[in-house]
Amino acid sequence: MKIGIVGGSLAGCSAASLLINAGHDITVFERSANDLTGRGGGIGTSKEVVEQITKEGLINVSFTCLTAKEMPFIGKNEANEPFGRTAWSLPVEIKVFHWNELWQQLRQNVPDSYYHAGVEIIDAYQLESGMVEIITKQDEKHQFDLLLFADGYKSLGRKILFPDKQLKYRGYVLWRGLLDESEMRPGELEDNLPRMSYLDSAGHNVVYFIPNTDGSKETGERIFNWAAYIAIPEAELNDLMKDKSGRVRSGTLPPGELSVDNELKLKKFLSKNIPEYYAEIVDKTVNSYIQVIYTLDLDAYYKDNMCLIGDAGVVVQPFTGSGVFKGHSNIKDLITSMATHNNLEDALKEWSLQQVETGKKLLAYGEQLEKAFIWEPMNFSEAEEKDVARWFKQAVTAPGEFNFERKT
Questions:
Q1: In sequence order, what E strands does 251-352 have?
Q2: What average pLDDT is seen over the chain?
Q3: Per-residue pLDDT tens over the stretch 380-389
Q4: At what angle do helices 10-21 and 323-340 cross, to 10 degrees?
Q5: Using one digit for the tens of pLDDT, what is the confidence trace for 78-124?
Q6: What secondary structure does DSSP assign to 30-98, as a single string?
Q7: Disulfide-capable partner of 177 in 110, 288, 295, 380 (CB 3.0 to 4.6 Å)?
Q8: How confident is the model at residue 408 (pLDDT cuts 50, 70, 90)?
Q9: Cis amide linkage into residue 255, ω under 30° from 0
Q10: In the chain, count of helices (H) and strands (E)?
Q11: Sheet bearing 141-144, strands edge to edge
Q12: Banded model confidence at residue 38, pLDDT cuts 50, 70, 90
């Protein structure tokens, strides 16, 4: 089958590689003319997902990641400075790594002749023949039996297929940064992935080490990844998202574009709310960036012979840890459905129902985590161990494939 893929990031490259292996004729269109390396920071997923994509050849044995084994719940407490007070710790097994390395390995699996960088798609529609036609910004037209939109949370494909569906702002942003371990004083992080409550504000902070850009996991050579969820009223969002030139950015404020005044305000906020050691790391960080957090629900993943995969589909909160899983799962299920149905419409209908069900599970999980860690968190600087353990078990029920708790 002749299949077009709009978007050449994680989901698009995963889809292309798996579809090529399944014998399909693939063309990928990526709007950016530049290499996508440098766009991301640290990400995490389950051991099972990493094992599966390794088995399928999407990443190879040289792929480097670290394993977070404990998730301490930490609060700022004067008596426990500079590292804060650990109220309780959850045994976990989470694979953490650099976005860049994952994308590079996925991209290597897609031959250059299949991957067209610098080509922006501006429209798509189904012809009477049943073929899907796309139009590029250069006014070129291409036709496919099936078109997959893997073009992210602001998906053109979703706007075409389901124009009534709109992103919903969740009331907070994710402010992120990276710092070389060599610039930090020695600490106690190691294999931990702490979640830190704020003293008197909504939100929380997550930190962990990832391998450096050369793949080194050696102590002293790693990269420290921090991610601060901070509540921002919608009326104040445009001011926060102004870049250094005064332009209001939509959805993402890229590295190096956060205004000096806003960066100082955010650093002051974290200095007040997280332990000294971690606030010091944030203060040393340059080129931090902001992601506005949205969600979006869907009742279908396809229309005609056009489908949505990855973040072009249901949009969920990033702390679900589902970013790698979604696009991979979408395309694996699609290949299975197409292989078990003679009729493409029947295959897409069955596949769409599966994706909607999974998407709604993830949204429900995200809302649990959001309530627990953003809007109604415990104060880890004071709470007792047994109370935190009971609170977490009652507040969060993870779907099986997203239960990162380590069996002890």
A1: 252-253, 289-295, 302-303, 306-308
A2: 94
A3: 999 999 999 9
A4: 30
A5: 999 999 999 999 999 999 999 999 999 999 999 999 999 999 999 99
A6: ES-SS--TTS--EEEEEHHHHHHHHHTTSS-TT---EEEEEEEEEE--GGGTTT-EEEEEEEEEEEEEE
A7: 288
A8: low
A9: no
A10: 10, 18
A11: 121-126, 132-136, 141-144
A12: low
Residue found by looking up tokens 């922006």 in the block: 120
**In one letter, which amino acid is 218?**
E
- SS3 label, residue 228: strand
Q: Residue 304 in contact with residue 132, Cβ under 8 Å?
A: yes
Residue 81 token pair: 């400075």
d(CA 345, CA 72): 48
The pTM score is 0.95
* pLDDT at residue 34, rounded to an integer: 84
Domains and CATH numbers, the chain: 2-39+101-166+298-368 (3.50.50.60), 66-100+167-294+372-402 (3.30.9.60)
